[in-house]
UniProtKB/TrEMBL annotation:
Name of the molecule in the record: TRAP transporter substrate-binding protein DctP
PANTHER family tied to this protein: 2,3-DIKETO-L-GULONATE-BINDING PERIPLASMIC PROTEIN YIAO, PTHR33376
GO MF entries: carbohydrate binding
Keywords linked to the UniProt accession: Signal
Natural source organism: Halomonas eurihalina
Pfam families on file: DctP (PF03480)
CDD domains: PBP2_TRAP_SBP_like_6
A single BP term in Gene Ontology: transmembrane transport
Signal sequence, renumbered to the chain: 1-31
Length: 347
């Protein structure tokens, strides 16, 4: 979550030239239409779950449309950083896999989906996004405000877990006095609710901050803990299902609406299948990654139901207060809590 308060987008015209593909905005799609797909991270399936999804999506779209749509991949933010890519796909035909940093300037309500300890497991999270009233409202807002179709919630490594190098953390009381790296002020609020302190530190500086003691701990999915070699400077891993780690596939709505029904159906079918593949792949790797971290010497802490409830009861109010400070309408929070099977603020 690199962006934590909505900011104005720059004129989309500055970035439209970056798109190399051509697609019609109305009428039938011409043969061999190229659609660009930009995203973050290296083109390495072992290091980037989003790349696994993107490569599979490319294959399926091209197969299901008999080559009439060709997806051209641009990993490593080759088409620009988060807001640049969003501006491009808002103004021109294309696809983008955005993080919260790209989505929040347009739909800050998306932060509601990151309420900590909202889900017990993958099934809960997937049902929330696939069937929930809150997520449907976010999808509608994105189309109305930006002309973008929200096509898929892409898993990028499971659930966030706490790590630190001081002591095992199995309850909120164990945080007392510790210093944690935070991604944004919402995480600072969460740590402070537990009696710890939080300091925003860029990802590129996390390893050294942990090594030198600037921070005692951090939180990320197991995949990122491995990618950053954080197991070298962290002794304890707490699997608390803090937040569901995801990004978002969006597409230019006029482009998609302009395809004929058969083309649009084939494309949507490819997206659904690629997303299911990514979910299966991601979930299958979680235990493997945790086992790897244990092999590297990390102690794995698995809080029980009572301990998880304590995390939720102490941590959620701090995040909800932060959401209120962002001027996000309470109805979004109420819808999300209801979709997750939790008590709403108005009750």
């Amino acid at each position: 979550m690199a962006v934590f308060r909505p900011t104005a987008l720059r004129p989309a015209s500055l970035f439209a030239a970056c798109l190399l593909g051509a697609a019609t905005l109305s009428g039938s799609v011409q043969a061999a239409t190229t659609v660009n797909l930009g995203y973050n991270g290296a083109p390495d399936p072992e290091k980037n779950a989003v790349h696994v999804f993107a490569t599979d999506l490319k294959k399926r779209v091209e197969e299901k449309t008999d080559g009439e749509i060709e997806i051209k991949l641009y990993p490593n933010s080759m088409l620009g950083e988060e807001q640049e890519r969003m501006e491009q796909v808002m103004s021109s035909p294309g696809l983008n896999i955005a993080s919260f940093a790209g989505m929040s300037p347009v739909v800050p309500e998306i932060y509601v989906s990151a309420i900590p300890f909202l889900f017990d497991d993958f099934d809960d999270a997937r049902q929330f996004f696939d069937e929930g009233e809150y997520w449907q409202a976010v999808e509608n807002d994105l189309r109305e405000r930006a002309g973008l179709e929200l096509l898929a919630v892409v898993e990028e490594g499971g659930f966030l877990a706490f790590t630190n190098d001081k002591r095992p953390i199995a309850s909120p009381d164990d945080f007392e006095g510790l210093r944690f790296r935070a991604m944004d002020p919402s995480q600072v609020a969460l740590y402070e609710a537990f009696g710890a302190s939080g300091t925003p530190i860029p990802w590129t500086e996390v390893y050294m901050a942990l090594k030198t003691g600037v921070a005692d701990g951090q939180m990320n999915p197991p995949m990122y803990i491995i990618l950053g070699s954080l197991y070298e400077v962290q002794d304890y891993l707490t699997l608390a299902n803090i937040q569901y780690s995801d990004q978002f596939l969006v597409g230019n709505a006029a482009m998609i609406d302009g395809w004929d029904e058969a083309m649009r159906s084939a494309f949507q079918e490819a997206v659904a299948e690629a997303n299911q593949m990514a979910r299966d792949h991601n979930e299958a790797r979680v235990d493997e990654r945790i086992a790897y971290l244990e092999e590297q010497g990390m102690e794995i802490i698995r809080p029980d139901e009572e301990q998880l409830a304590a995390f939720r009861e102490q941590g959620q109010p701090a995040y909800l207060d932060w959401l209120e400070q962002q001027d996000i309408a309470p109805r979004y929070v109420d819808m999300a809590l209801e979709d997750a099977g939790l008590t709403t603020q108005s009750e």
